[in-house]
Amino acid sequence: MTVLIDSSIWEPNPSLYFFIFISCFFSIAFFPHFSRTNKSLSPSPFDHGISSSSSSSSSSSLLRFQRKFLFVFSLASVMEGLWSVFGEFELAHYGVSKEEMATSLCVGYGAALLVGTFLGMISDLIGHNKACLIFCILHLCVGIWKRIMPHPSIWLASICLSLASSIFSFSFEAWVVVENEKQGHGQDTLSDTFWLMTFFESASLIGSQVLANWLLGSNPETGMVSSYTAAIFLAMIGIICISKAWKETTQNAPIKDYGISYTLIFSDKRMWLLGFAHACLQFSIAVFWILWAPTLVADGRAVYLGLIHPCLLGARMLGSTVFPWLLSGPSSLRTEDCLVYAFIVLGFTLSIVAYDYQEIAILVSLFCLFHAVVGLIIPSLARLRTMHVPNELRGGMISLSLAPANAAILFLLMQRGYYQKIENSTMMAFAALGLFLAAGCMHLLKQWGKQPYQNWHEL
After folding, report:
1. Residue 400 lies in a domain
2. Any residues with CB less than 8 A from the CB of 176 and at least 6 apart, and which?
3. Tell me, what CATH number does 376's domain have?
4. Domains of the chain: total
5. Each residue of 65-102: pLDDT tens digit?
6. The whole model's pTM is what?
7. Distance CA 242, CA 185 (A)
8. Distance (Å, rounded) from C-alpha 431 to C-alpha 422?
9. Does some domain include residue 47?
10. Domain contains 328
11. Residue 190, SS3 per DSSP
């Protein structure tokens, strides 16, 4: 008698994609109505009695500005996502062992820690559009290197892509904030730009996966080479668009004054709280993306990871659409209040995952919840930076806040990859602990209240 063993591969229900798409559509479609209702009852604190004609002209200028920026930002997001689609498959294709993969990750995070930490301050001095150009040039160099070399160095690629990711994390946000102020748009308009950035970034990452899979086709080797060509093409378009988009004026303040301003800013405890919360969020996101696939395929489970990845990014898109509802919807909440509860939810979510539930559907549901809340937190933290961080120092403050996250990830990767002293669940638990600490930081920030920084030029 023969025993048949069910070897089906788990995949998400197609209705999940439909639910995420419909939810995003209705969230965006109905928000303007409820937002106008809310504003009629409670005027925005940013309104300053602008006339209808000037308001219409300003709105048209703002839309042109947002569309131009979001196009460039989406293009950069596709470049970022294109390299991460193949992951270990690409490295294994070139004969890279598991130990060498772990080494390349450590090298990348080491470069982000030692060099990327200071790129934000350099960006503040030379101009953020130049930093965005460097981002595209790094992607262009990696694409050409992999295109012409039969066996490209994974260390060099890891260093370049890690530095590009560091620039991506601060340069575009700092650029749009400075340019928004230069064009005379109010701070309230930045809130819309922030959640749109998260929304379009997630959509672009899904688009990069679709593009890479389409280029892959039936021949993996030819498909990967085609993806390198696509990366080169996108990088060249990015360089052209950024060069022609805005002519940013660099700061006239000398480096000495710039250093003095940082000394004064660091004396503000709110900066430390905001920076530490951002570091904890980035640390948890990095830990998740390193461990989500091993967690799902633990104990030999067969899962279509390529079908789950769009669900996670779609959940983040949905979470980003919730941000304007909480900010200026029918029951608007203070940003710090939202973040306290959001970080607590994230902490509990990763705490449950740390126990390694065996049911895949439960894990995928928790992963989607995690990304939905992340989609809410990212624009919320950007809005708080607008309140507390001077625009002249924004890039440097973001890159400095990433240093603890990169250091913690590098430490855990070395402990896990080389010494085998910790388990994946322990790394998840550390990430959960960091999120609870971030919630405490937001609670303290809420207690101290919103006290705007002084103009550092006058200090």
Report:
1. yes
2. 69, 73, 190, 193, 197
3. 1.20.1250.20
4. 1
5. 888 899 999 999 999 998 887 777 777 777 777 778 88
6. 0.88
7. 21
8. 13
9. no
10. yes
11. helix
